[in-house]
Amino acid sequence: MRAVVLDRFGSIENLQVKDLPIPEPGVGEVLVRIAAGSLNPIDVKTRTGQGAANFAAIVPPIVLGWDLSGTVVACGAEAGDWRPGDAVFGSIGFPGLGRTNADYTVARADHLARKPPPVTHEQAAAAAMAGQTAWQALTRHGRPAGGQKVLVQAASGGVGHMAVQIAKQFGADVTGTSSASNRDFVLSLGADTHIDYRNRPIETYPRDFDMVFDAVGGNTTLRSLALLKEDGLLVSILPPNDEIVAEEAVRTGRRFHFVLMQSSAADMTAVAHLLASGAIRPHVSQRFALTDLGRAHALQETGRSVGKIVILN
User: Are residues 85 and 6 in contact, defined by beta-carbon separation less than 8 angstroms?
Assistant: First the structure.
């Protein structure tokens, strides 16, 4: 099978297309023929020796990638209800390795969900890590209720544009931040209000949000606390560098949680239901062939892609 192998941490030149044996599923695993995958910031960070390399024992040469949509072709023992021919999708193996930058990969049976028939492989792959991350961040420590105000930072990004749509499904009044050029896109997702973060300092934002969803990190995380009502909730999908945010949240009567996505069939199935009903729809901005993965990484690395980058097998 074809696989893109990272020979050593570093630049995109270290991603090489190679011919590898098709893996065999073990106990509790299935073998999936991958039709499509998608790229996430964690792919780029891990390629450079950061990201998942910081919290998992990852030593090159390795196959990167976590998102997939495809078809089960073989099942190991104790693989649950999965059968060859089942259409599946998911963001697998996280926070370890998923190895989806290949024609085939082995996945844990409890990391996959059934792909809804109306949803294409491309759409399912695009919604995998982004949708699951947004779902877990918005539900793990308390989900927004109808009429509550939610701020989504970086609302035009991969996870952000999923968070806007999911928060709207909970009945929230959603404000999304992005550059002015992406204003119409953010509003098309269902956001009620848009803020141009480049031309409006965060200190001038409203300060009555019930929840802030932070997909920016850095100083934005700490500064977002002041935008919350008392007992409001700040969730960040980027780890803070110190304990200052948590300490400031306690001091000011707010709540703060860092959420690291964990591969989960149950959460992926929740996203599948939203996809099947049309309640959420991933936006695919660019498509690359598996053999052109390096160019996809280069685009993701700019931080300017809107929605998701999909990898087609």
Answer: no
